[in-house]
Amino acid sequence: MAVEKAFLQELLDEMATNTGPTLRQLSEQQPVLLVFLRHFGCTFCREALADIAGKREEIEKLGTKIVFVHMTENDIAERYFSRFGLDGAVHISDPACRYYQAFGLVKGNLTQLFGLHTWIRGFSAGVLDGHGIGPQLGDGFQMPGLFVIQDGLIKSSFIHKLASDRPDYLELARCCAIEEEL
Question: pTM surpassing 0.90?
Fold first, then answer.
């Protein structure tokens, strides 16, 4: 992803977290795994929260801070984070999806959102794995993505091709931990 450095710095300075520091400030202290979520009613968003909750300790042991971007008010988001065992999560509210757009995350097309692979994965995640579905809290067409940001720069990313893509959060967080060791 090619985001102009000056624009990125300005954007990271604007992105204030629920705890106060900006994304840039956090990234200057330690690598940040920036997780852009789909809406909280989405089966895949719920699966992502459960996956991250399961890997949170390992990710944080790498020295990486997890920061979520969501499309609701902070109090609603905190209820979902708590429900998935992510109490105290650091997050950024973006109901207008301005930050999603600035990071190049697009609105999904019919194949990305409702294609056969997505339906099959949706059944697996929603029914078999018990993540279910809920009310649409945000833009149902918005695609998610992940970015590792360190010292105000994007070091790595995962851009979902399908709403049902399931990234390896721990592996992505390791990218900067490995760089630190070298």
Answer: no
